[in-house]
Amino acid sequence: MTAGSRNRKVAVVGVALSDCGRVDEATPYTLHAQAARRALADAGLDRSVVDGFASAGTGVLAPVEVAEYLGLRPTWVDSTSVGGSTWEVMAAHAADAIAAGHANAVLLVYGSTARADIKAGRRTGNLSFGARGPLQFEVPYGHTLIAKYAMAARRHMIEHGTTIEQLAEVAVQARANAALNPEAMFRTPITVDDVLSGPMIADPFTKLHCCIRSDGGAAVLLAAEEYVQDCRTTPIRILGTGEHVSHATMSEWPDFTVSPAAVSGRLAFERAGVRASDIELAEIYDAFTYMTLVTLEDLGFCKKGEGGAFIQSRALPVNTDGGGLSAQHPGMRGLFLLVEAVRQLRGEAGARQVRRPDGELPELAVASGTGGWFCSSGTVVLGRE
User: Fold this and answer.
1) Rounded CA gap, 152 and 230, in Å?
2) pTM of the model
3) Sheet order of strands, 236-245 included
4) How would you class 257 by CB atoms within 10 Å of its CB: exposed for 0-12, middle for 13-18, buried for 19 or more?
């Protein structure tokens, strides 16, 4: 545990969610604290070991204010904010810092009361990210956040023959997984017809093609190999990471059918020394159904244009907790992907637990987050010791 040690192995030793779903009485800080305490308890470690902290999205001086609220005084800090992929990118930065000896134990925390704030009138539902800088040139054309994703989905349908039924299947499978998850916000099964018959939000997306809005928080504790023996949980190794930023304006996006996961995934798999075919489950950011489909293609689970058929084949367990479409989506959901991947690799997922044909637990998982409107991507490959 010396600051000068190098090339240390890094493991996730604690994961947790705060109260999620409909949480009307909490503040974002409360949810941060709940998740942080639970992740430390999950690991069996005291907060005094935490010398690194990463957070984004709360306060004027994030993560300084959150660290103060949690009683932490870190010597390594990260506030990278690139949308939904923030947490995979932060996990990559934290793993690098621990491996280099710049930190020993890094706590990643997120919490949001997005649903409760709208219900109470403290904010309104945001349709765009504003009209400053380069984005100002798209706002007059009605480029809401949802419209940007809908345009990309329509382009994939035109170029590759992807059908609206295949996109709907993403939502159906997410809800089926959520039905097995007691922490999921929506658990009643749905059908493809249910998805297709819903109110139109942005063509081709009806309501069930879009993520839910919830409250909730999550925390992940990463630690150097020296701490593993003191933990009460099975360590889950960070094997490889990748990050990539693509564009801010739609006019600068070269191909609407290719997401930045095509780069972050390639880097993560190369650094982990594995191939997509080795992965046994995938946790994919799914603010909209198209995100799941195109990310699976770009990570290499199937060829470009074959994402719809791949999803219908159910060849790979995807978003096993129900994802942002059914389980929780309080804003930047990337940290929830890491929590679920770790729980699956530990064998702690209850009725939704993924197992090999021989009944053994999976050994490799991938979590891939997307930020903005396919503006950024972070991919993390995780493996069980």
Assistant:
1) 47
2) 0.95
3) 76-78, 52-54, 105-112, 216-224, 10-17, 236-245, 376-384, 364-371, 281-284
4) buried
d(CA 272, CA 381): 7
289-298 vs 261-272: helix crossing angle, rounded to 10: 50
> DSSP labels for 151-197?
HHHHHHHHHH---HHHHHHHHHHHHHHHTT-TT-S--S---HHHHHT
Backbone angle region of 13, left / alpha / beta, with phi > 0 → left and psi within -120 to 50 → alpha:
alpha
Task: Note the pLDDT tens digit of each residue in 300-317.
Answer: 999 999 999 999 999 999
- Residue 167 exposed, middle or buried by CB count within 10 Å (0-12, 13-18, 19+): buried
The residues that bridge with 222 in the sheet, in sequence order, are 12, 106
Angle formed by the axes of helices 164-178 and 289-298, nearest 10°: 100
The residue assigned the tokens 């609407």 is 256
Q: What is the mean pLDDT of each run of 10 residues along the chain (385 residues)?
A: 65 96 92 97 96 91 93 96 96 97 97 86 70 82 88 98 98 98 97 98 97 95 93 95 95 96 98 98 98 98 98 97 97 95 98 97 98 96 92
Plot region of 380 (φ>0 → left; ψ -120 to 50 → alpha; else → beta):
beta
The amino acid sitting at 148 is K
Percent of the chain whose predicted confidence (pLDDT) is above 90: 85
User: Phi then psi for 318, rounded to 5 degrees?
Assistant: -130, 135
Q: What is the pLDDT of residues 198-212, one digit of tens each?
A: 999 999 999 999 999
Give the helix ranges, DSSP H, for the chain.
Answer: 28-43, 64-69, 86-100, 114-119, 145-160, 164-178, 192-196, 225-228, 261-272, 289-298, 307-313, 323-326, 334-346
Q: Which residues does residue 378 pair with via DSSP β-bridges, in sequence order? A: 243, 369
Type of residue numbered 13: V
